[in-house]
């Protein structure tokens, strides 16, 4: 995903694996990020991102776009249920394992453009 984002012209700040919420928020604040993209390979994402949107808001990132994708749960719940749960947690887009990077890139372009229009920045 990192390579696809860079190849598409996005500025990427890659934080690596096992990154805390605070590290994501600090990096987004320092760089003026439009979006934070989180990937999960362990299936423990639900417990790791609890309260993430609220922490973003408290840090002044109320309009940051939040994406999450990958292996998000261990239980094998229906995708619609998993997606709904992560949207309840404040994520704008939720992607299942195997999603092609092009899908996320297309969504990210649209979401950034929509947010900028909504804030009169275009």
Please characterize this protein's 3D structure.
This protein is an alpha/beta fold and 122 residues long. The protein has a single domain (2-118), classed as Rossmann fold (3-Layer(aba) Sandwich), CATH 3.40.50.280. It is built from 6 helices and 3 strands. The chain has helices at 2-7, 21-31, 45-48, 52-58, 79-88, 101-118, and strands at 35-40, 65-70, 93-95. A 3-stranded parallel beta sheet has the order 1-2-3, sandwiched between helices. It is globular, with a radius of gyration of 14 Å. The two termini are 26 Å apart.
The gist of it:
46% of the residues lie in helices and 12% in strands. The protein has 122 residues and is α/β, with parallel strands linked by helices.
Question: Can you tag this structure with a few keywords?
Answer:
single chain, 46% helix, three-stranded parallel β-sheet, alpha/beta, 122 residues
- Write the element-wise H/E pattern from the N-terminal end onward: HHEHHEHEH
What integer value in Å does the Rg equal?
14 Å
Coarse structural class: alpha/beta
Strand order of the largest sheet: 1-2-3
Give a count of the beta strands, DSSP E runs of length 2 or more.
Answer: 3
**Shape, per Cα inertia axes:** globular
Quaternary state of this entry equals: single chain
CATH architecture: 3-Layer(aba) Sandwich
Count of individual domains: 1
Poorly predicted spans:
none
- How far do the termini sit from each other? 26 Å
Mean pLDDT: 94
CATH class: Alpha Beta
Instruction: Report the biggest beta sheet as strand number plus sense, adding barrel if it closes.
Output: 3 strands, parallel
CATH fold call:
Rossmann fold
Question: What name goes with the CATH superfamily?
Answer: Cobalamin-binding domain
Strand content bin: 5-15%
